[in-house]
Design a protein that fits this description.
The protein contains 8 helices and 9 strands. By secondary structure, the protein is of the alpha+beta class. It folds into 3 domains: 98 residues, no CATH class; 65 residues, Helix Hairpins; 148 residues, Heat Shock Protein 90.
């Protein structure tokens, strides 16, 4: 939700506290003025009989009282602002920790906990509830990931056996072509299983970060996919310089390969192009891939990262993918604390921008 930026809660607390002190000071000074300085009679302070204090408009008139009252109000205002800022900071410190934990959870880090110490109050009750929610979410996500990984492992063995049996059957001269079709279906099932396994591994972040150059990964992906690009009459264009980030040496090249393959397959029937650009900054490295193609709607682009989502015009194509390419890319980018942005090109096609932290 887009909101206009306003005053922070800490600033509001500070101003409220300072305003309260200022109003209290004005009331106190008003009481002093009405009931003491307006008194015409002399006031004796017992038990000091030899000491006489005379309060009268002549001795304590507006010329003397007003500057002192203004100075007192300014002092109360300063005390209110400084004291209010410090007190508000101490009171809102638990809320800051909860906000930090929520941001980390939104980036996929469900293992982090607030673990608020101290006596029970509203903030600590909120922190404990938030920790409980994170624990339940982490347990459910881990259970889903284990299911996907276990299902993928269980499927790989029988599929591999089927593939071997089909290879043997293809060597039979009496084959009528059915084995070839079965082999293609089996190969697709194996590819789907591997994709699901990669999808679950990307979410687990079970890798040792190493330096990876995205420009080198892009060159390798272009070299591997060049035969496919030539078959589909798509030209590949690479530009930019080194773009080094830290992450998995397996997942990041897979991410680049998926993006380049997606750009090649989802392109024009003739004279299509794919432009690959890598840039490096002080805080982030950027991989940008653009491809020509059909006009895409903003609503359609927003769903492309969902699993098993494909463009309707390519579902029946012999080059149709598994529908997991961009979903895997999104999981890999999220596992590396990066951002993935997809946008439709005005002339048709798709623009994909991946931004990852610089090492």
């Amino acid at each position: 939700m887009s909101r206009r930026r306003g005053l922070s809660v800490r600033a509001k607390f500070t101003l409220s506290y300072a305003g309260f002190l200022l109003v209290a000071g004005i009331l106190i000074i008003s009481v002093v003025w009405l009931f003491l300085l307006r008194e015409r009679s002399s006031l004796y302070l017992p038990p000091l009989e030899d000491f006489l204090l005379i309060l009268s408009p002549r001795n304590f008139g507006p010329r003397v009282f007003s500057p002192a009252a203004i100075a007192l109000l300014l002092l109360l205002l300063v005390i209110g602002l400084v004291g209010g800022w410090i007190l508000a900071g101490r009171m809102l410190a638990p809320l800051t920790r909860i906000t930090t934990a929520a941001r980390r959870a939104s980036r996929g880090s469900l293992a982090h906990r607030v673990e608020m110490e101290g006596h029970q109050d509203e903030f600590r009750e909120l922190a404990d509830t938030f920790d409980t929610m994170l624990a339940q979410l982490e347990s459910q996500v881990a259970e889903q990931q284990r299911f996907a990984a276990n299902a993928s492992h269980e499927l790989r063995t029988p599929l591999a056996v089927m593939q071997t049996m089909l290879d043997v059957a293809l060597q039979d001269p009496s084959s009528d072509g059915r084995e070839e079709r079965l082999r293609a279906v089996n190969a697709r099932a194996i590819a789907l299983t591997e994709a699901l396994l990669l999808l679950s591994r990307a979410d687990q972040r079970s890798f040792t970060p190493e330096e990876v150059d995205l420009s080198f990964a892009a060159e390798e992906a272009a070299e591997i996919l060049l035969p496919l690009a030539e078959k589909l009459h798509v030209s590949l264009e690479l530009a930019g310089g080194p773009a080094v980030t830290r992450g998995s040496r397996t997942l990041l090249p897979q991410m680049v390969t998926n993006l380049v393959q997606n750009a090649i397959v989802h392109n024009l029937a003739e004279n299509g192009t794919v432009q690959i650009m890598t840039t490096a900054g002080t805080e982030a490295v950027v991989l940008s891939i653009e491809n020509t193609g059909e006009l895409l709607s903003a609503e359609g682009v927003s769903t492309l990262t969902e699993p098993f989502q494909r463009g309707t015009e390519r579902i029946h194509s012999d080059q149709a993918g598994l529908g997991l390419g961009l979903a895997i890319v999104q999981r890999i980018v999220r596992a590396h604390d990066g951002t993935l942005n997809l946008s439709a090109r005005d002339a048709g096609g798709l623009r994909v921008t991946v931004k990852l932290p610089a090492p």
